[in-house]
Design brief:
single chain, mainly beta, Thrombin, subunit H
Length: about 80
C-alpha cells in the first residue's frame, strides 16, 4: 500500500476492539466514514492512520443506524 493509501485509512481503538474507516472529503470537508457497529459503545474514540498520524476525533458522530453508517467530522485531514 502506498503512503497516500495508508494515510486515507483510519484505525480506531476502543472498548469494543479495533476497526478501520475511510478518511475522505465530502463537500470539501474532511470526514471519517465507518460503520455504526464500529463506534457503538465507545466513550472516547481514539484514532490514527496506518501511516502513523494521530487523528483528533471530536465528540460529534453522525449515525445512520438503519444503514450501519457512521460519519465523523474532522477539523483537518491528517
Amino acid at each position: 500500500m502506498t503512503n497516500e493509501g495508508k494515510s486515507a485509512i483510519g484505525a480506531f481503538q476502543g472498548s469494543n476492539g479495533n476497526a478501520t474507516g475511510l478518511i475522505a472529503l465530502f463537500k470539501d470537508k474532511p470526514f471519517i466514514f465507518t460503520n455504526v457497529h464500529v463506534v457503538a459503545g465507545i466513550d472516547k474514540i481514539k484514532a490514527g492512520t496506518y501511516s502513523g498520524d494521530e487523528i483528533e476525533v471530536p465528540d460529534v458522530v453522525y449515525l445512520a443506524k438503519e444503514h450501519d453508517i457512521a460519519i465523523i467530522p474532522l477539523k483537518k485531514i491528517p
